[in-house]
Amino acid sequence: MDSRTLIETMPKAELHLHIEGTLEPEMMFALAKRNGISLRYDSVESIRKAYDFGSLQDFLDLYYEGMSVLITRQDFFDLTFAYLEKMNAQNVRHVEIFFDPQAHTGRGISFDTVLSGIIDAFDRARSDFGISAKLILCFLRHLPEEEAFVTLKQACRCKDHIFAVGLDSSEKGHPPSKFERVFREAREQGFVPVAHAGEEGPAAYVCEAIDLLQVQRIDHGNRALEDPALVARIARQQIPMTVCPLSNRRLQVTPDLKKHPLRAMLNAGLLVTVNSDDPSYFGGYINDNFIAIQEALDLNQSELLALGRNSFIASFLSDAEKRAALDVFDRFAASV
Ligand code: HPA
Ligand code: ZN
């Protein structure tokens, strides 16, 4: 089986995906029209042309602007269901999705509107496609911790629907330590902690995420490789890392994918997975990320299968669900 066919047919999970980052320019236009909002772009092509980012902040500015077209429960349903339909076609069997409630409540959209639209789509995808889904609420790290506490209070009313809490947005200058108290409260309330760390920020932020936030997964984590003692620790504890190759290229974290650290991470014994982050903005969904990194690093079949298997091991599925998913995966692996 050639690499592309293997990637496309392999059962897999996606663990690093911002639902607002799946907003395709076509849908942005359609929702702007439906909601009577005017955009500063006159065509889909002109939007795509603007996706030429020099840094994480360049991207975030457009990302927050783009999501201003999301107003109603139906909008959040349409956004989420469109993503899950694509995942069904890409043989993704399980997803763990980030959402940024503060980016919506901050412009007058209620927490319940956002959450109910997303959960409606999860329910529909489970029944239509058999895809399972978990939701991760991200605190925006450029905002004060007090505002994260307000958001956590809203999440506590909806524990049945929100599994984990994460930390995203502008990393530099906003270390995990800024959110130590709200993460402690979130853990006490039963939410599993994860955080973006070491995307643009230093290895020390990854240490803080582990020590202070007690994260059970590191989102990105690229710059952890600058600290060998930290790498050894992450490998020993098998703390999963959610790597996003096309994001790293588009945000200039690793402008040349041939120099991407993914193979070094695998060789160091890290539990790494491949994900798409914000696929509409970064040029591809999960299978495109697998294909791009396979071509850049010439990953072989056993490396691709290890990455696919890791996606289930690194997930927050229950032990029984993991065993069932890995059974299916191992039967696939034996057939290639
Ligand atoms: N990094 C940090 N924050 C984000 C990202 C990202 O790649 N995508 C959406 N919010
Ligand atoms: Zn991300």
Explain this structure to me?
The protein is of the alpha/beta class and 336 residues long. It has a single domain, classed as Alpha-Beta Barrel (TIM Barrel). It is 51% helix and 12% strand. It has helices at residues 3-9, 25-35, 44-49, 56-66, 73-89, 102-105, 111-129, 145-156, 180-188, 203-211, 228-237, 245-250, 262-267, 279-282, 286-297, 301-313, 319-335; strands spanning 12-14, 92-99, 132-140, 164-168, 192-193, 195-197, 218-220, 241-243, 272-274. The strands form 2 sheets. It has a 5-stranded parallel β-sheet with strand order 1-2-3-4-5. β7, α11 (228-237) and β8 (241-243) form a beta-alpha-beta unit. α1 packs antiparallel against α15 (286-297) and α16 (301-313) runs antiparallel to α17 (319-335). The protein binds hypoxanthine and zinc ion.
- How far is the first residue's CA from the last residue's CA? 6 Å
Oligomer kind: single chain
Average pLDDT, rounded to a whole number, is 98
Radius of gyration: 19 Å
CATH superfamily: Metal-dependent hydrolases
Largest sheet: 5 strands, parallel
What is the general shape?
globular
Order of the strands making up the biggest sheet: 1-2-3-4-5
Q: In DSSP terms, counting alpha (H) and pi (I) runs of 4 or more, how many helices?
A: 17
**SSE order:** HEHHHHEHHEHEHEEHEHEHHEHHHH
Instruction: Please identify the top-level CATH class.
Output: Alpha Beta
CATH topology: TIM Barrel
Assign the CATH architecture.
Alpha-Beta Barrel
Low-confidence stretches: none
Give the ligands present. Answer: hypoxanthine, zinc ion
Could you give the count of β-strands? 9
Structural class: alpha/beta
Range of helix content: 40-55%
Q: What is the total number of structural domains?
A: 1
